[in-house]
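Appendix B. One record, verbatim.
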Amino acid sequence: MPTRHPLLDVTEIDTDIETYLNQIGEVTFRFPEHDSRCQSFRAVVDNQHWFVKHGNIPQTITWLKQAVDFNAAVQHEALPQLHNAFTTPDGFTLVYNWVDGESLRPERELRDGEIHPRDRFCAMPADEIIAALNVIYDVHVLIEKRGFIAEDFYDGCIIYDFEKKQIHLYDFDHYHPAPFINDRGRLYGSSRFMAPEEFQKGARIDERTNVFMLGRTAFVLLANSSDSRDDWKGNEVMWQVAKKATNTDKQLRYQSVQKFVSAWHAAIGTGEILI
């Protein structure tokens, strides 16, 4: 019989997650505790790197199990693959393949003189930024088709490999079946990306909410979080598409992610893009 992999084939462990990872391999980096209070690790097992995420309170366990459902429904080359999920004495653990690159909101101290990864990203030529945005948008078209709505997507969910010019997205624990009602008031997320209805208890959160978030993503990445037209690195029509997407009135936005992305791709070819 083939040997069972101690990380990929396990369904339950009888010790805490960090102890277990060091028993079967080595923890090479322990990420600071997330706002969600999850613990995350870079672990080496059998000479391969893995991203391991663990939750040990009821809410985080619920979110991680939600991520299992999401990953079962949505697969894309820009999303790290979920390889396993298992229980621990105090919680629940997910195991993803490790992807190289820099988070645009790194969970580490920057070195003296180091340029922030988001600023470094936003300083790239416009066509490279647009190529990365297009991947983000294609992923969310697929997510819409699979019946999910984003919550808590922001630049901290983006990993960019500057050498390979390759983008990955992660942290989909808060993506819900669509639509849902805002029962909390302020939802999870960065206010730089959030639609007005994400602050309104009782509001419907649907595809138009995600359209707003994707429009804001364009402003964050193509204008380094500026709303000024002077800082925008795309063309005029792309600007107008992003402005429509981020209208505070849901009825005046694009009515689906697919319609927004179609308008975005059409706009790319209509005028000069700044270098």
